[in-house]
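WARN no homologs supplied; continuing
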Amino acid sequence: MLFFVDTIDNRYGALTVQAAAGGTPAVDLPNVRLPEIAQVRPAGGELELVAWDSTVPEQLLARGDIAVLGMCLCIGALLMRPLLLSVAEGRPFRKGNPARIAGLAGVVLFAGIVGGALPHVAALMVHTRLNLAGPGSPFVTHDLSISLTPIPVALLLLVLAESFRRGGELADDVEGMV
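OK structure emitted
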């Protein structure tokens, strides 16, 4: 038994969303030909394109943000350990600490920008594989949106790295005087 949920008018005709009792809602797109391996269904107020037979690169890129985040967390932990140990020993301005902090800034930027872009690249690959990308396509992919939060965080880490470098220089000067 199907019941009517919503109709949205677009340039390709009326978009009708129907839901079966206890089943996945079906979407009817007149004037749009989807490959047999694709289906459109509602997902949280938007429409979701579901395509089967995805390629290995599409699968890897779709989940790449999590892999990049995990890799960056591991690298960040490796950079933080010697830094925290030197602070605990009472020698925060030890040589190498400014470089570790600057490395953390690079890791934050990489995780925030590259990690966030990978799922968008995967979506574009799927649209291209299904011949649903480009002008004249009824599907509008979201523009690549990258969070700007990692940029000021990385800049603050670079400022901290520079202050550690200057602190190291001052510590070396004081040791020479005593």
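The chain has two domains: 2-51, 56-177.
OK
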